[in-house]
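Quick bug: Threonine--tRNA ligase output formatted oddly.
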Amino acid sequence: MAGQEQKKTYTALKGQTYLEALGEKPSSSIIAVKSGNRLFDLRQTADSDREIQAVYLDSEDGIKILRHSAAHLLAHAITSLFPDSKPNAGPPTEDGFYYDFDMKPISSDHFPVIEEKMQDIVKKNYPIIREEYNRNELLSMFSNNPYKIDKIIDNVPEGGRSSVYRQGDFYDFCTGPHVPSTGYLKAVKVISLASTHYKGDDKKPAMVRIYGTAFPDEKSLKKYLQNREEALKRDHRKLGKEMDLFVFNTERAPGFPLYTPNGSIIRGELMSFMKEKNTQRGWQDVWTPHIFRDVIWKQSGHYAKYKPNMYVFTLEDGDSYGVKPMNCPGHISIFEREPHSYRDLPVRLSEPGTVYRYEKSGEVGGLTRPRAFTIDDGHAFMRFDQIVDEITSILEMIKETFKGILGNVDLKFDLSVMDKEHPENYLLVYRCKNCGSTIEARKASMEDHLLCPSCGSENLQPDFTGWDGATEQLRNALDREQLTYQEYPGEAAFYGPKIDVHVRDALGRMWQLSTVQLDFFMPTNFGLSYVNSESKPERIVMVHRAIFGSYERFMAIVLEHFAGKLPTWLSPIQAYIIPVSENYHEYAKKVQSHFLKEGIRVGLDTSSETLGKKIKMIRTRRPAYIIVVGQNEVENGTVTVRNRKDQQKTMDLKEFTKELGKEISGRNIDQFF
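Here's what came back:
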């Protein structure tokens, strides 16, 4: 119902509040309005005539507003309970919110008191009022909080104005919007604590980060908390330890994963899967070194942007090197080894390339945020007119990949496009109005004024033709695949529009995995061109694509999605043999030898423990099948097989091997019985 109502368009007249513009008294589920890509409070006054739509509490925008307001609720409670605390910032997140405070350390023991105070503020149902002040007034209001002062100085120019949101005796520097009153925040929960530093800089003041979440109703909150509890059980770090998949040695290699034999099996199977997909669609394997001289990183632009996150060093001979944070410059070096005709394109190069990035210690976490990870990286070099076909092929590959590994999961497609109101943020062609010459540049990165290279004029006009054409081709590819997608103006990288793909796991969590990124920047920096049909050089268009994203992060998601009970083709232990007693060890070893010859990954327990204890001990390793052998199996040449659901079946050894082989080779998600 809300989804249908939300499409209705209203007209807000200049001087009218948006609440008035909605006409009759709106439902209590309407918390804001939207005009274009901008969100407004219901009590705000329209500064011009504009078309608006109602924003409902349970919509995507509504939940973000709700959680932002819940962050203010938390700050209100903390500053009431701990008067010496100084709030920094509190944004909404994908599944909740957090707020950073300069305050004495607290523990989770304080959560009941904090939540009680929050509920007291909710019950009082304070109106949440937006007020505007000039820069000097804002600086005076927040004079006792250096963190707010920094934000005001950074965001409000001399003579400018900005907003403050007030609820009861609490107020915060914020652009909003927010829910109409604190009474909307009934389903809120404080979740956890973390330590951080101001602006993420460990040289700046230490801060307490408090995480929470909020939902439109108690039922949704309860479901989230149940899923969160289940997620803790499925945490890939816990599963990795139980299944003996990887090691993190904080003394010797902090943030760098080391894969055990079992973990290497999963990683290798995922790489084999991707190699097949690449081969089927014309991607050619390459290999690039892990270290390059710094000249390549300067040319690619990574030094300017990524140097603080790179591992760099200088040798005795004075040569400086950088460990690669990206694979693309290496692929470019391979592509440019020979000239290319328009007939040669596209050229598709792929590599499971390991990259290294220095993440701050507080940001490193398991396989989802390591300092070394391997990307299923691909770079296509093509003509402009080939974009739609190439993107379509990649989108098909994405759908095939996630359906093949995870099953019928939901995929969400986001198209990030440029914000034409701020062309200075993007690499664009500028045309001189005086002489007609063109120059390609990104204004925001230049210290001096952009001048015409021919006549020196500043009278330059941005030409959006290339960006518009490329963006339209991305739209065409998405439409060709009949995919529903949402556009995000201003979210494009400065060097081109992109498509991001989010995947919903078994717990309903959305993970951003695949990225398909058009790039006009690197072909410009490296002077990449091909010879067109008129024998003239023409600029290459480059596409960066990663389907999994990184093998590490995807492995973590797969482990949590299946709770460690991986499809048999991915399982490190596909069959685990347990003889009833030592009298059947010889037959168990024959079965093991048979499986090994058939390429089946098999384990064998010849310990003196009881059958029940052996089964219990191996459960944590999550083998696909447990095979028990005793007198009947020896006499009949059979095996008694238990699947993951503890269903049991006695089968002829060769019959079971045949069925198991089909399950593995078909990369089936479900077991054959």
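Actually, after a second look the formatting is fine. The first strand starts at residue 9 and ends at 12. Closing.
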